[in-house]
Each structure stands twice: as C-alpha cells, then as structure tokens.
Amino acid sequence: MPKKIIKTENLNLWFANKKILKEINLEIVENKITAIIGPSGCGKSTFVRTLNRMNDLIPSCRITGNVHYKGKNIFSPETDVTNLRQNIGQVFQKPNPFPKSIFDNIAFGPRLYGEKNKDKLKNIVEESLEKVGLWKEVKNDLAKNALSLSGGQQQRLCLARTLATKPKVILMDEPCSALDPLSTAKIEDLMQNLKDITIVIVTHNMQQATRVSHFTGFFLMGKLIEFGETKDIFTKPQNKKTEDYISGKFG
Amino acid sequence: MSKRKWQQLKETIIKYFFGINGVISILVLLGIFLFLTKTGLQSFEKISLSQFFLEKEWNPTSYNNPQWGILAMLTGTIYIALGSLVIAVPIGIATSIYLSEIASPIMRELLKPAIEMIAAVPSVVLGLFGLIFLVPIISTFFRISSGLNALSASILVAIMVLPTIISISEDIIREVPQEYKEASLALGATRWETIQKVILPVSASGIFASIMLGLGRAIGETMLVLIIAGNAQAFPKSFLDPVRPITANIAIEIKEVVTGDLHYQALFATGLLLFMITFTINLVSDIIIHKQLKNLNHEK
User: Does residue A220 fall inside a structural domain?
Assistant: First the structure.
C-alpha cells in the first residue's frame, strides 16, 4: 500500500449558511500528483484551501469532520498553523509575487523561519530558482522587482518561493489558468520533476489532469463523486456523472 | 421656445455653472497667494532676509530699535509640529493597522466614525478642554509653575492630526491586495509577520504621505496653540518652555497693526512662509498618495 500523507474524514464545510463541502472522504498518496476536477463552483478550490487551513481567513467559515496530515488532525488546538502551512505550501491561481526583489521573494519563507546567514540564503534562492528553471533567466537580475517578470515567470517564481520553505505538500489552485500554453507546459514539466513532493492540483482542464496526475478526484456540487487512478477515471469511470463530465456533456 | 431647445440651453447653463465653480476655487487660491506675496515681499525692502530668518528677537513695536527675527517663533512652530507627530504617528499607524487588519467589522464600524468625529471638534473647544484638564496635569507632573508650554500644545495638536493620519493610512492599507496577504500566510507567516513584512512595506509611501498631511495641519493650527502654547516670545530651550508659534503670533498681533505699515507687511511675510510650507507639504503628499493608489490598483 502506498503511504497516505493527507486523509479527510466526513469533511463538511459551510460559508455562513451555505454548505460548500459535503462529507468528503479522500486520501492523498505521498509523493504523487492528485488532480481535483469538476465544474466551476463545485467546491474544489475550497477543498484544497481547507488542507492548509487558509479558510481560517474567512470569518463565516464553519467546518465539521477531520483532516489528518501525517496522522495528526490539523484542526486540533495543538496544531501550529504556521508550521502546517510551511509543510503544506500553496501556489495560487493568479501569480502573486510580492512587490519586492526576486531575491527577497524567494528568501521570504526562509527568513520567516529565522535564516539570517546571507550565504545560506543565497544558496536557497539559487537552488529554488534552479528547480523551477528560472535561475538562468534571472540570475543577473535578482535585485529586480519581481513584478517586472512575465506572467509565466511570475508563477514559476511563486512556485520557487514555496519550494524555498521545503514543503512536503504543494497545493496548486488552477496554477496555469492565467498562463499561455508554453508557460503551462513548463509548469507541468516542473510538477513531474518534483518527485519527493506531494502535489494536489485543482484544474478544470481535463487534458491537464490526464497529462500530469496519478490520481484524480471528481467533485460535483460539493460532493466527491469519484476518486481513483487517473487512467481509470478517464477510461472507465464508474459513475455516470463522471462519464458525462469528462466526455464534455456538461461543464 | 421648443422643448428641445430649452433642454439644450439648460445643458449649457449647467455646464457653465459647474465650470465656473471649479474655476472660482482656483482663482481664490491664486488670489490668496498673490495678495500674500505682494504684501509680504514689500517688507523685505526694509528687513533683510538674514535678519528675518536668523535672528531670535521679534520686537516690531520698539520705538528705537525694532527687531524682525522669526527664529524663536519658527522654532516654536517646529517644536509643536514635530512634537505632535512624535505622539500622533505611532498611535495613528497602530490604529490604522488595527482598523484595517485586525478589528472585527462591527468594531471598525464603531471606531472609524468615532475617530473621524475628532476632526469635527472645533479646535477652540479642544483648546478649552486642554486648558482645564491637560494643562494642570502637565504643570503638576513636571513641577512647573505653568503648564502652558510646547508639550501641552503638542499633545493637543497630536489629537487634532490623528484623524488625518488614521483615515488616510487606513484607506491605503485596505487597498493592499488580498493576494499578498494570502501569499504571505500560505508561506507560514503569522498575521503579525504579514503586517510587518508585507502590508506595511507595500503601503509605506502612502502612510508617509498621510503623516505629511498631518504635519501640514499641525503647522497651520492656530487656535489651539494660541490658547495652550503660552505665547512667550523668548527662544524656547525645551518642550517645557512656553512658545509662540508663527500662527499664534499673527493672530495676536494683526489686530494691533496699522494697515500697510512695515509691521503689517512683516506679519504677511510670516503668513506667506507658512502658506508656502503647508502648500508644498500638501502638494507632495497628494502626489505620493495618488501614485500609491494607482500602483496598488494596478497590481490588483
């Protein structure tokens, strides 16, 4: 049996009185890529943001059920949320580098955890940018404002910024929806290369799900309709709704 | 007249009505500036610039040897302006961070209008309040015979400039895109680290501009300092000395001068100086604020 790094049990979530997630039971396999697909408004983004407790920011949010990360309940009072988010990083839909230099963007996380040594920071910055293929493009411009990069470069920078905190899991919320096809291909390649990191990617691009993921979960109206290996979901779906969705009957 | 023609005429009249209103405010500003300049500069035919700016003694009514140095009064103005900022800036920034990032919506709805109401308190009322409550406390605490001094005035002027600093800073901080905050939190930053390392640096120039606007108000404040600052003309050696800022001096002396004589012109010269200082401060901070808001909206 492959190791499960995240497990949700009977997860329900409300924003005010609106129920967004309904009884989600899902297991994420360590060091594999899991795609979450489904039509707009099905709760897939909300689900992913629950895993690193980013929904804490929304005052009207209420949650029942459990999410276990490495066997520990992330909602228990003992959980250190900042530590959790260091381990479970996130890349957002729209590239969101800070309006700081490229160097300061990457060094943001390590500095938070107390890294002050300039040489070590330099190494981390180079290593992280190298991993996302940006090092060659920007190594002479590390002091330049990150907002001067192109959209695709910005998104890779955001991925590098997350990698610099040495996360075990990265949540990606439609990371390519604002990018051109070439930049999208680059991000997808990167995901394949991050072999010692678990990735959960939300996408409504089904080709992307088949290209990059090992497992796929199909969400509809806040429910997890079907979950399994990607090749099974896309070739022999068990549920009629899944079949209709992947064949493009609704979306 | 046909209905259509009448409507066209109405449109034209309305257009010019609003146009004239806009032009009037510019004309008024220009008129003030020209009048101040014309009258004020006349005084420099008889008073040298170095005497005006560098001498401490201001004694225009002396029969034998009138003195025209504003240094002591200018120092008084600077004491109160800087003193009030030293008090108002930390409180103002902390409050604007609290309002924009920490306070619950209900708390915000209660606090923001309350703070803006401070701006609605007439400065003469605040002056009376200070005279009765603050001045005795200051004199008891520092064991001095009178609490009418630069420190008391600074504290009260700080209260006057707080609404300016808070409401502009708060607007700027609230304009910081949500994406930055999310990015910071998702990297494992605490709320405080996010404020300190992301929100404040991004909004720094706007906050700076709000402080500048506060400074402009503090320099121009007259009624409060007239009541509280003590009005002594001696050069102030510390914050516990009474001071007579330029604004208060104009208010005190303008009633006693003969229209058109040198004393009258010299008072206008001090007024011109104040006007140029506050005009520059307001202009610069306005430019900074607009630039900052444009940048923030652009990044969204």
Answer: yes
